[in-house]
Amino acid sequence: MTNQQTHIEINLPNLRNNLNFLRSKLNSKTMIMAVVKAFSYGSDAKIISKELESQKIDYLAVAYVDEGIELRENGIKTPILVLHPQLNDFDEILKYELEPSIYSFRILKEFLNALITHSKKGYPFQLKFNTGLNRLGFNKADIGDLVLLLKDLTPTFIFSHLGASEDGEHAAFTLNQINNFKKISFLFEKEIGVTVKKHILNTSGILNFSEYQFDMVRSGIGLYGFGNDPEYNNALKPVLNLKTVISQIHDVKKGQSVGYNKGFTANKFTRSATLPIGHADGVSRLYGNGKGKVMINGSFAKILGNVCMDMIMVDVTNIKCKEGDQVTLFDDTNFSAEEFSSAIGTISYEILTALSLRIKRIVLN
Question: Does 12-219 carry CATH code 3.40.50.720?
Fold first, then answer.
């Protein structure tokens, strides 16, 4: 069942705007990989992927195999990179024509065995190298053993991932990662005897280090409207709007409390509005007790007391409103997900990807 009164608007014109803006930063021949993992950052991966495919996106990327299978089963034909394949995934990867990221010797050996089993010697794959993020990827010292195992197999791409491209204070670190990637690429190509296509830039890399775009770039959060930099937030437009309604309004007398554990006790007359959204929908308990706020009829209303599983209560004492009125948690014009999430010291990625599947999705074309 879905939460019918609370809904997410998926703004496809804004998605197209963001894609075109990112393309404007690139050479005409540079490919773009759209990251649609985590339900397309809390939206709907099927809807987003179909729209991106219609816009001639070059690649899609998911975190796990099941995400890629869902896209294939819904008619998506675009190449799909699986960023974090697990052991025992390769039968399905081959069945659904997904492209695995090979990031360790254990995963490589499993992949090679699957190729033999299914007689898929020329199957496409990508190799991930670690250049400083120290999360996933082969290291420079692994290249000799890696080439021996690959024999005559050539990856479609080699790539790496930047760790701090959004932060100008860490520009030297980012440039060092890029230089490491260049050295690794040169050595790998020398050993394997073939030139291989490359990608390293993420959204912030596209915006801040576009001269290193190589053959392809990747964008996740940028496509959904955030550039991790105020300079670009005017050009990028948030794709998701989260809205709900007022279910009920209570007059709370001085000394009375609101919500579980008496999270809020009124020190004066207070009007409290109850909204049908809670931590089961992705609004963390950390937003409670006055930290988070929502917008009602053009004014901000702070969250009162503790966030409940299915509801929050907000202070509407000084706001003209009634039951049934629309409430905005974040949108693309007045109060962004970045602003909403900053109230508890987190980032837009977290609030977006936490949005529950029980929330109704509405597509704006």
Answer: no
